[in-house]
Amino acid sequence: MHFKGARIIKIHVYYIFNDIIFKQILNYVDIMKFKARLFDKLDNKKVKCHVCANECTILPDKVGICRTRKNFDGELFTLIYGSMISTGSLDPIEKKPLYNYWPGATAYSIASIGCSFKCQNCQNWSISQANPTDNGKNGFYDLQGYEGRGMSLVEMTPEQLEKRVVKSGAKTLAYTYNEPLIWHEWIIDTVPLMKKHDIKTILVTNGYSTPEATKELIDIGIDAANIDIKAMSDEFYKKICGVTSVQPVLDTAKQFKSNRVHIEITNLIIPDLNDSKEDIQKLCDWIVDNLGKNTPVHFSAYHPDFKMPSMKRTPYETLNIAYNIAKEVGLYFPYVGNISHEKGSNTYCPNCNHLLFGRRGYTFKKIDVTDDNKCPNCSYELDNDIIGEINKYPSHKFSFF
User: Fold this and answer.
1) Does 398 or 357 have the greater pLDDT score?
2) Domain ends where: 59, 80, 101?
3) Closest CA to 345 of 336, 353, 354, 333
4) 48 and 190 both lie in a single domain
């Protein structure tokens, strides 16, 4: 066991979600830092990490770009193993967003802190840009104007998470909100426990992985991923995200898809940065050619946040253009999020355009699919398009554990 002899400590946890302050008394395991996977030892006690595509070379007593992996005397450790911003929340799976995977299911959602990117427009910056302490118990900021601010983190063992997810009744577990790929060791140890209970596991990710890290996730049986392809240009990734290229993201998407992981793509459209018809066309063409026409694509509206690279919100007209381009190139399942759109929340039959799922927000207005997963209008088989059981009577209530 990883946790033999670990101390059990009772703490008072305060956390904020949607401007509501919660208090919880928890017993947690004092796990401390945890030995990392996928790194090379170099000369002079330097190490090279191979979990994300930054592949940082890290000097002794320093951290990588994600700020969650630290070199202690020539050995690499993750500082966020089992460290979470809360013990979890229950979300509709459509919030991830996943529209074609276990429609109507509830996702037990967990998150930690840190990210492999430094996106200027990050809408979860309060956790993605936080730094863990060496023992993983707290987060703190080194952002200008936020010096000295911090947060308490909840620590759990994989077995404690397993019990909580099972007790919740959720059919899926989502690693989400901050970047889950830097949580590699925690995912590796928790996915097999979910499989014992047939609970599906989901990554909501920027996709900035290495082939070897992606293979490990495939090998343990990750079931689905929503991958954020932010743009199709290296220039965008350098300017906005602080990394060198979009190519690792594209490679990750292809590697997952070719190994039967269910993939949906999100593209946040930012005015004046990635909103031209050419940008959208290039993305849609790439998806058709590399992931297939039945790959769902979510075009999301941007609103200014964090360092605000654009002060403009995404207009309805731009999102409507994106939706129509996706349809024109042959994508079966384009969606529009963060804004009201007449068709953008709905799922239509790829063959006859019959309305299969009508949605308002994250809830169903209509479900019209046969019990054997066919279109009731033309008998088109949806087995390769709509994956998993359809929960026709979801009862999504916000819950925080």
Assistant:
1) 357
2) 80
3) 336
4) no
User: Does residue 116 lie in a domain region?
Assistant: yes
Give the separation between CA 212 and CA 196, rounded to whole angstroms. 25
Q: How far is CA 303 from CA 264, 265, 309, 339, 399, in A?
A: 22, 19, 10, 10, 26
CB 36 within 8 A of CB 65: no
Q: In which domain, by residue range, is 21 found? A: 8-80
Same domain, 176 and 306: yes
* Secondary structure class of 100 (helix, strand, coil): coil
> Distance (Å, rounded) from C-alpha 89 to C-alpha 66?
24
CB 199 within 8 A of CB 170: yes
Beta bridge partner(s), residue 108: 90, 173
Residue-wise pLDDT for 107-165, tens only, equals: 999 999 999 999 988 888 889 989 999 988 888 877 655 666 778 899 999 999 999 99
In the block, residue with structure tokens 């058709």? 288
Residue 60: count other Cβ atoms within 10 Å of its Cβ: 14
Q: What CA–CA distance (Å, rounded) separates 280 from 269?
A: 9
Residues 312 and 166 grouped into a single domain: yes
> Do 156 and 299 share a domain, yes or no?
yes
**Owner of token pair 């990588």:** 64
At residue 304 the predicted structure's pLDDT band, cuts being 50, 70 and 90, is confident
pTM equals 0.89
Alpha helices in 143-210 (DSSP H): 158-168, 184-195
Token digits for 148?
A: 């000295």
